[in-house]
Amino acid sequence: MASKGSSKSLFRTLWRKTPAKHLMLNRPRIRSPGRLAAFSTTRSGHARGTEYLQLHDPDLTESQRTVREAISKVCARFDDNYWLAADREHRFPVEFHQAVAKDGWLGICMPSAYGGSELGIAEAAVMVQTIAESGAAYAGASAVHMNIFGLEPVRKFGSEEQKKRMLVPLIAGRERACFGVTEPNTGLDTLRLQSRAVRKGDEQHYELSGQKIWISTAQVAEKILVLVRTTPLEHVKKPSHGLSLFYTDLDRTQVQVTEIPKMGRAAVDSNTLFFDGWKVPRQDLIGEEGNGFKMIMHGMNAERILIAAEALGIGFAALRRAALYAGERKVFGRPIGQNQAIQHPLADSWMQLEAARLMIYQAARMYDQGYETGEYANAAKYLAAEAAFTACERAVMTHGGMGYAKEYHVERYLREIMIPRIAPVSREMIKNYIGERVLGLPRSY
């Protein structure tokens, strides 16, 4: 997908970078506010609830719509039964990951010099929403999440040599990476990480010792972006100082990787890591020693926006299945969707999801325009997680007893939608952030 040279428009850039087989050449393209208004008035109000990966949202930009269309073509090759099997077998979706990599989408936000497309978070959010909404849910989104934006610290703070060495194979899909920050004894209190890195011997390597937990894809990843403390907490002026970031080989001869049995998203593993005396080359240190926290903070708002978009996709997938089932299932001689007890909760969920969607893409636009978007990114993540959870719960209840059966897929959505209510930041911490930063209230913790 990467393309060198200038272009007259973003759409033309996407046209060159997107495989022609993924484009519907006869689809009308919106170019002016007048046409946009005309297009939106012809939209069916119920399309979102029943149409598979619809393209009708009038607020999407041309580039976002092109990304959604192209990604939907990839996702169409991996139906719900593929994801049901991957979940049942606890098997990483290698075929899906390779299909996404083959068409160049893993570098959607990365520079073209390293194989990327140099698009924004607004386009990346459309991409991951589409993946989740296709039925892949968090299994599909998590399989590619780290590749899309995880190495933003390398892109921004790495040397030219590091960018070529680290970004190119990740974008091409030749390597997979995981992200190691959370620890068993610190949780969300990142500034109190206990894992240590000490410069040893000839100073050409560090020795890392400590533990990490809830590390996704560590069973299959070749690389890890890991945050550890290089200066003891008691020796720094501020807790945010003295943390350093490394991108290095996940050497299983030096790192013990143990999978965590868990409630959902079984296709993508979660793990604990234990290491003592793990030798990491000095050339794998990203940026300056001691500035690691600043580097990971750079990408946290983007991560919240992407997590929110993934949750949104699951919510719409669940709502789509619920609406279709409610229209077809007959009890007492009438479709159950004719009953307001079924119809009204689903209608309410559509409104909640659509409100969350607008917040997500507002946050994404602001991020791409250079705004500090903490309040919008956090609010988007909170609203999407809550709306999607409610939609998934209602989808199970709409299906009645069959909602508990794996063959109808909604129980899988419900298990997976617990993730954004917990990670990467809790609902309570988001409320703390809004209370302090937006409302000016005193810190509560």
UniProtKB/TrEMBL annotation:
Instruction: Identify the residues that the record assigns to the Acyl-CoA oxidase/dehydrogenase middle domain, covering every copy.
Output: 178-276
Identify the domain of life.
Answer: Eukaryota
Q: Where is the Acyl-CoA dehydrogenase/oxidase C-terminal domain?
A: 290-439
Q: Where does the record place the Acyl-CoA dehydrogenase/oxidase N-terminal domain?
A: 61-173
Q: Which InterPro entries match?
A: Acyl-CoA_Oxase/DH_mid-dom, Acyl-CoA_Oxase/DH_mid-dom_sf, AcylCo_DH-like_C, AcylCo_DH/oxidase_C, AcylCoA_DH/ox_N, AcylCoA_DH/ox_N_sf, AcylCoA_DH/oxidase_NM_dom_sf
Q: Which cofactor does it need?
A: FAD
GO MF entry, a single one: flavin adenine dinucleotide binding
Q: Which UniProt keywords apply?
A: FAD, Flavoprotein, Oxidoreductase
Family listed = Belongs to the acyl-CoA dehydrogenase family.
Name of protein: Acyl-CoA dehydrogenase
